[in-house]
Amino acid sequence: MKKPIYVLNGPNLNRLGRRQPEIYGHTTLAEVEALCHATLPDRGVVFRQSNREYELIEWIHEAIDEGDGIIINPAGLTFTSVALMDALKMFEGPIIEFHISNVHKREAIYHKSLVSPVVTAVMAGLGARGYATALMAMSDLLTRD
Q1: Per-residue pLDDT at 106 exceeds 80
Q2: Which residues are listed for substrate binding in this entry (predicted)?
């Protein structure tokens, strides 16, 4: 039996649809979650969001034991959290770092990810619907020989 893909979302993503729609669009996190479940209906998707760093780390630990892949949008923790990076280092499966906006078109503070060096792939700038693309890419990574 296949283990689920974990889709983890960091701080402030619970405000999608209302937070800076000119950058993040009008899609809500609930709509993103529905999109994720609809994208791979025959595969388990564990979808979670937290504003707490420790909770994201706990979910990464859970994914280490119970998941096949991780798609993570660490949000602001991307650029500040060594602890999150260290937790991701322990995961043996594929990891996709995902950002709704193109962080490289934004202010310089958003250009240096602490997470990127420890993940399999990075996706940015595809908007909220890009989560579906990330899930399809993860599915492909999981079926490669």
Answers
A1: no
A2: 73, 86, 100-101
